[in-house]
Amino acid sequence: MTASPPSSHAQPKNLRNTLVRAGIDLLEEGGIEALTLRKCAARAGVSHAAPAHHFDGLAGLKAAIAAEGFRIFSNYMREARAQGDQSARGQLKSICRGYLQFGVDHGGILRVIFGDRGLAGLVPGGAREDADAYQILREVCAPFVPEGTTARVIELQVWSLIHGFTMLSLAGEFGAPGGPLEDGLFDQILGLLNALGTSGTT
């Protein structure tokens, strides 16, 4: 006897999480173009109308995926920071490596996080997931803020460098995604961070 698909009204919280996970799987397999409400419902084993009970259209699903994506994104940077050189400059470069590795591993999620709202999503005082990711960036940039300089300027310099490199890498500008982590190019790009002034130990 074939099992019936789960009801779209049963265990609403779990179903919402299941739909988000299904959306992430679609992104991982086919990129942003593969993400639709109908495909998400099919992947979750529910009726095509089920997502409407949990999300305000595709934009609502993307927002939920972005929230989960920021959590994963933050963990990549946090783990890279913990595992790398613990000097101030080492931590700075480590979170950049974590950022790039997240993009390589989860390019579809990265595009959902930033695609519709540019870089505006990752700002202080945003959603908790956004703020967690930005706080990591802020903490590792803090030792490099010269007296009289606004911290945001340094944070944006670092962010622009790593985000730009990550997006160019995903677009294939440096060969197959992931290559720059291995062939030394990324290390050369990170060398630009050596020009940042410090107000503490490096």
Brief write-up:
The protein has two domains: 10-55, Arc Repressor Mutant, subunit A (Orthogonal Bundle), CATH 1.10.10.60; 67-195, Tetracycline Repressor, domain 2 (Orthogonal Bundle), CATH 1.10.357.10. It contains eight helices and no strands. It has helices at residues 12-30, 37-44, 57-83, 88-105, 107-115, 128-141, 151-170, 185-190.
Protein model, in words:
The chain is mainly alpha-helical. The protein has two domains: about 45 residues, Homeodomain-like (Arc Repressor Mutant, subunit A, Orthogonal Bundle); about 130 residues, Tetracycline Repressor, domain 2. Helices cover about 60% and strands about 0% of the residues. α4 runs parallel beside α7. The longest helix has 27 residues. The protein starts with 11 loop residues before the first helix and ends in a 12-residue tail after the last helix.
Q: Percentage of helical residues?
A: 55-70%
H and E order: HHHHHHHH
Which structural class best describes the helix and strand composition? mainly alpha
CATH topology of the largest domain: Tetracycline Repressor, domain 2
Q: What profile does the largest beta sheet have?
A: none
Total beta strand runs: 0
Give the overall silhouette: elongated
Supply the number of helical segments: 8
Distance between the termini: 65 Å
Named at the architecture level, the CATH assignment of the largest domain is Orthogonal Bundle
Question: Please, how many domains?
Answer: 2
Name the CATH homologous superfamily of the largest domain.
Answer: Tetracycline Repressor, domain 2
Report the CATH C-level class of the largest domain. Answer: Mainly Alpha
Q: Uncertain segments of ≥5 residues (pLDDT<50)?
A: 1-10
Indicate the proportion of strand residues.
Answer: under 5%
Mean pLDDT: 81
Backbone CA Rg: 19 Å
InterPro entries: Homeodomain-like_sf (IPR009057), HTH-type_TetR-like_transc_reg (IPR050109), HTH_TetR (IPR001647), MT1864/Rv1816-like_C (IPR025996), Tet_transcr_reg_TetR-rel_C_sf (IPR036271)
Protein name: TetR/AcrR family transcriptional regulator
Keywords: DNA-binding, Transcription, Transcription regulation
